[in-house]
């Protein structure tokens, strides 16, 4: 039964990972974002303490 032959499946996995690492990964890493916005200045917000009238 060919589906139980591990050598075939092992070679398919090796070839798949090789294709992924050689073709896909460099394309993803070469991607550059065209619209990069600089981070905004963080504004310190003033918080008030809660008023607990029953305590």
UniProtKB/TrEMBL annotation:
Instruction: Name any one Pfam family assigned in the record.
Output: ATP-synt_8
- In Gene Ontology terms, what is one molecular function of this protein? proton transmembrane transporter activity
Keywords in alphabetical order: ATP synthesis, CF(0), Hydrogen ion transport, Ion transport, Membrane, Mitochondrion, Transmembrane, Transmembrane helix, Transport
Which GO biological process categories is it annotated with? Answer: proton motive force-driven ATP synthesis
Which residues span the membrane?
6-25
InterPro entries from the xrefs? ATP8_metazoa, ATPase_protein_8
Query: GO CC terms for this protein?
Result: mitochondrial membrane; proton-transporting ATP synthase complex
Topology class, membrane: Single-pass membrane protein
Keyword flag Nucleotidyltransferase: no
Localization terms from the record: Mitochondrion membrane
What this protein is reported to do is described as: Subunit 8, of the mitochondrial membrane ATP synthase complex (F(1)F(0) ATP synthase or Complex V) that produces ATP from ADP in the presence of a proton gradient across the membrane which is generated by electron transport complexes of the respiratory chain. ATP synthase complex consist of a soluble F(1) head domain - the catalytic core - and a membrane F(1) domain - the membrane proton channel. These two domains are linked by a central stalk rotating inside the F(1) region and a stationary peripheral stalk.
Family statement: Belongs to the ATPase protein 8 family.
Subunit field text:
Component of the ATP synthase complex composed at least of ATP5F1A/subunit alpha, ATP5F1B/subunit beta, ATP5MC1/subunit c (homooctomer), MT-ATP6/subunit a, MT-ATP8/subunit 8, ATP5ME/subunit e, ATP5MF/subunit f, ATP5MG/subunit g, ATP5MK/subunit k, ATP5MJ/subunit j, ATP5F1C/subunit gamma, ATP5F1D/subunit delta, ATP5F1E/subunit epsilon, ATP5PF/subunit F6, ATP5PB/subunit b, ATP5PD/subunit d, ATP5PO/subunit OSCP.
Q: What is this protein called?
A: ATP synthase complex subunit 8
The organism is: Pampus argenteus (Silver pomfret)
């Amino acid at each position: 039964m060919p589906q139980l032959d591990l050598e075939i499946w092992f070679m398919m996995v090796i070839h798949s990972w090789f294709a992924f690492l050689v073709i896909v990964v460099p394309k993803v890493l070469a991607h550059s974002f065209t619209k990069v916005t600089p981070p905004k200045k963080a504004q310190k917000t003033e918080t008030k303490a809660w008023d607990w009238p029953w305590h």
